[in-house]
## 1
Amino acid sequence: MSYYNEMFEGKQVREPYAMLRAWVDTMPDDFRQMKQAEAEALFRRIGITFAVYGEGGDPDRLIPFDMMPRVFEQNEWRKLERGIKQRARALNAFLRDVYGRAEIVRAGRIPARLVYQNEAYEKSVVGVVPPRGVYSHIIGIDLVRTGKDEFFVLEDNCRTPSGVSYMLENREIMMRMFPQLFRNNRIEPVDQYPELLRRTLESVAPAKCDGRPTCVILTPGHFNSAYYEHSFLANLMGVELVEGQDLFVDGEFVYMRTTQGPKRVDVIYRRLDDPYLDPLCFRPDSMLGVPGLMDVYRSGGVSICSAPGAGVADDKAIYTFVPEMVRFYLGEEPILNNVQTWTLWKDDDYKYVMENLPELVVKEVHGSGGYGMLVGPKSTKAEVEEFRKKIEANPGNYIAQPTLSLSTCPTFVEEGIAPRHVDLRPFCLCGDRIELVPGGLTRVALREGSLVVNSSQGGGVKDTWVLSE
Amino acid sequence: MKLQISHETVYGYDQPIRNLVQSLRLTPSVFEGQKTHEWEIDVTGGMRGPGFRDGAGDWIEGWTVRGPVQEVTVRISGRVDTRDTAGVLRGHREMIHPLAYLRDTRPTRADDGLRDLAAQVGGSADLLDLSHKLSGAVADAIRYTNGSTHAATTAAEALALGEGVCQDHAHALIAVARERDLPARYVSGYLHSTQDGQSHDAAHAWAEIFVDGLGWVGFDAANRCCPDERYVRLGSGLDAQDAAPIRGVAMGTGTEKLAVAVRVEELAQ
């Protein structure tokens, strides 16, 4: 298999990487090691860790940071940006539609059962139109590159995508360690993200809100794997970080307990899944949510970001229909393409996948984080056969995709730099406007040859640059 | 029938609670089979919160009670004129697609026993006929026995036991209907009197099955009939909990004691 190397064109170093090449070439080995140690110390001091489950030991780990940035040229980025924003508009149009008149289903463009029998389809919010008709306010779109002009969307994350704190921290640390690089290059900033996020949240305050909206971040608590990110964003936005017990419903509104007494809350950026939001509407045993919250939400007393039920748009089965959504709602051709996907509940697809299992990537429909997937070409015969049994037991639970030749970026390794596979998660903000900061989270598979970039599976992160004109 | 309904639920706590939040689905549905003339909801010491009609057509009201308080009474009283629509929920405005009611939940999940029961009922192209047969099969398989089950009993457990109350009949019918690919849901409400003329005096529950061409049709397997003018419909959900007339959470350490009194009386013409 051949891979697109983002640094080289033949033997030539591509323009955007030219100056990084010189930077690496003139860097003494001991300097690099010293800087790598410094970066680690900085991350440790900040306390940015992530949780890995199912492997025993202390689940909190430091995510490996690679100092070699990933670089996009201005024109490459502009095209990506258009594609991402287009997709974000279509996803929100879809959500508005399936909780309303469901024109796309009536038109026969997407099977009714796929929508209504979907676990993430939330019947309790049918007919509820959130402010500005936005259901998903922060959309993380996972992209892979397979050629100079070939980008594919791997998945959409419409609920509560995480990772934006890494995007911000990676940049912060690079600027601290290598200020020279930022003086010598015109790199578009990303540090406006928290301000844009806050503006986005404020722009979807309910009509009943008077004055400047009070926004909060609702976290499940410090044991959550992304707790660091929750507190980090709250800090940068200057809003309160609250847990369910800090909020309460009184009459028609939601209030936050403060030392100065109750304060009405207008917008809740929740980092808590739907089933836990409100024991009066969802799981009655949930202690993490706010009793009565959904009644307030459904009667327009508070906004919840993302809106309950938004998950139906990012399901792996619904994913195959996103290009159709772009055509149906926007009347445009999709700028970004999907990866070809076989859905195993269809007989033809099932047959093809079972015959070609060693060449394919198979994922659980509701899985995430790189768990419960098969990467055919990287698996032993025994692993493939074991996975085959799982699929046979429940075909409807799986989708399959070709093993993509993910592009590589130069990455620091023991011997200097070497190509490693990467993906990209930009974070698109949807409120009164659609905003995208130039950059995102680049994840890198640090093991040689590995195509799995998830941090839980040995992946690391890089700073992502978009060069100005 | 002209029905006068009073429904009182008293929550008693051995320790004062700090506050109570409730979501009430306690207002009669709007459809051809019933017309509500007066309807009052009161929660002692409570503040009425948001009220709205949800996508299923149910009127939902939030209430909050600020503590400390040791007893809270939810009091309903009102008058409803009903007429027989042969169980058909005609003229009911709702937005949720019927296919959203094919999803199972813990109490309505089919096990081998329920799957067998569903399969035993002869195939029929006439979905209304099939629904009647499924309802009959559930009534045959689960004998109505007061106190034989509890609130958390699942349809599978009730079937294995062979006994249950209206909640179990409804859950079991929902399970077998969904097993036959018919959207089905749980309905909570009131019943004036059973088939034999005995006054009922308790909250009641039954199932609705979506029949193409007719829409939602009620089936009361516990009483081997379809809801008629003796029934008052409040709201629906995927199961008893999802359709519960009262859902609430109290903040406090005390244990809760519950007393319910329902009266459904026919008014003189």
## 2
Amino acid sequence: MCLTSTNHKIGDLVNNVVTARKQWVGLLKTLVVVAASVFAFSGAAQAEESEFSIVVSVQNQTIDDGVATKNPVVGVSISVTTATGSAVGEGITDASGIVTISVPSKDSYLVNIDLATLPDGITLIDENKTQAIIEKDSFTTNAKRVTFFAGSSTATGAPLFDRVVQRLVDGIRLGLIIAICSVGLSLIFGTTGLTNFAHGEMVTFGGLIAFWLNVLLGVPLLIAAPLVIALGGVFGLAMNAIIFAKLRKRGIGLISQLVVSVGLSIMLRNMYLYQFGGRTRPLDDFSLQVAKSFGPVSITMRDLTTAIISLIALVAVALYLQKSRTGKAIRAVSDNPNLASSTGIDTQKIIRIVWFAGGALAAMGGLFRGLDEQVGFEMGSGLIFLMFAGITLGGLGSAYGALVGGFLVGILVELASLVVPAELKNAPALFILIIVLVVRPQGILGRKQRVG
Amino acid sequence: MDIIKILENTLSALFGIDAAYFALAAIGLNIQFGYTGLLNFGQAAFMACGAYGFGMTSQYFGVGMWWGILIGLVFVVILGLLVGIPTLRLRADYLAIVTIAAAEIVRLVVRSVEFKKYFGGSDGINSFSKSFRDLSPFDPAGKYGIRPFQYSGYSFWTIIVGWSLVALFSFMVYMLMKSPWGRVVKAIREDEDAVRSLGKNVYSYKMQSLIIGGVIGMFSGMIFALDRGSVQPDNYSRDVTFYVLTALVLGGVAKVRGSVVGPMMFWAIYVFSDNFLRELTKDKPFEIFGFGLIQKSQVGPVNYMLIGLGLMLLMTFRPQGVFGSKEEMALDGR
């Protein structure tokens, strides 16, 4: 008796040591992979930020009922002096209305705009404000941004109908991007149960890779785009293989996995900040566009094209899920992983496919978002909350739900900006979220059994 | 490299005001997350409730700071009900989604131009700490304590108040978790249906837990605001909640001492790494084989990257942190 129990104890001890060692080996592996991935990128994007600079932007702004349209003003002379008045540097705004003037240190400066160099017919909104004062403490990053607004801010008072239509079109565009980004989020939730808070970073990844290829390497965007999407898919696969597949294998609970994804999101976002710096920047190709008018709606060809491509992609995803063998398997795993795997479906393979597809679609969304707005390290984490509202509205875990929900949230958010101030236009999404959860927690297309 | 200075700063961070306000937020989060199993990802919003409740009273109503606590409480209860009512009947991740969204909205509302006259926009509120300052028995110009634990009079006062609150709430939570109420919430964490079958109103207990945790979070926001002498909307971003969560997991979830020692360790590690990296990159970028790895401006992101990595590794390899027990981890797939 006594002997066997001692043997057991020794056995346990050995086992413990072995598992502990395994843990440490796993830990080291993870660390190496992470460290490698952090530093693998070249620091090219960062190089120009090593010095302090003041980024001055001159924008001709027309505000039409709270919706601001900005056009860059080219060829305006800007000069920077120290607080005591001695000259530091000067420059002329480029095609995007921006000029970067480097300054020797974090200090207080005065930024002056030369009114005589403004193009004819353009005046500053506040004509007395030809000088911006920069305090020493306002350098939160190495580049301090200053914007001079030209143009008028009076409402032109377009008819209500026209405004609603314009918002609706903008809403459809936003909704398509949200839908594209959140399909993966919803499918990953459906197949693995993971609420992936790092999904926004997958969107950012797409935008940043597009920036890297297009701006830093000079690859035309049309060639870069498929690469971006493919790399996004690989990124999704890697996230699954390096982290979440391992966690599932170790039998770590879903809530723990959720918290891990939060950690991953923080880490990735700061990795982007480390590589890319804190400001937002436009892509090279298709960045200057002239809006065309179709009746009351004005839209640039670029935005129209991305919207059409998004729509095609969404229809393709829906058809794929509906018709193809793999698509059916994905839906089966989404519905009930155990049942699906007992019918001979390779669940792990399906999960890998879902991560790949989710990553690719998120990267595509990031690329389009980067074209639409600009590329920045927080572009995806700003969207994640709309994506969650979308998939909750559509039905958590249901693939079609993400399409429908994301689309509706985009439209609602844009329409809401008719009544809500532009800064708060995301707030209605929270109310959608709350109302859906009170009234119909399973969402539009979800089934009741999923909840609670 | 000035090693002594780095070590002094690290030691001083152990008992600094940052550790104190994090500890308060973590104690609150511990009630929700550790004991009840509620994923509150919006603790920053509860902190903002406290800070703004405080700031607004003195700024606009001209009444004493005690009213600030009352207004903060009202805010906390409203916010708690707003996020709790729709989600507490549902699976745990819904609460996470709604709280993170609510926290973001709270931040957007308080920093918006639209509500600038109430919340001060992105400048925040800056002149409200006078009545608290006047209560201080210490000479604001004087130095108190011995190195490295040496603080100016006002900091010393906030630190003392902060840690007293930590002690008070730690004791309260300790007693609470020994009480029948504590047993019920812990049972909810383990098996909600079992508790329901005993005739307990699970929904109501969860709501109480959410709001009690939120109230302690509110005091955290107040201490932070009083120490800084200002309320800034961007100090209550969603990442703050996650840093508090990291600190809590580091100390040990569902343990009172975990929620106090965790934040102390978190800040010591953070200050050490921050100081170390800053010293390392002070004169020239940190390089390996001539390949510039960390520049001066990148120290911030690298630090936060390490926090994120730390949270992931902790959750994976030691979810119970330093003091927790694995049995008490509420982290199954509910």
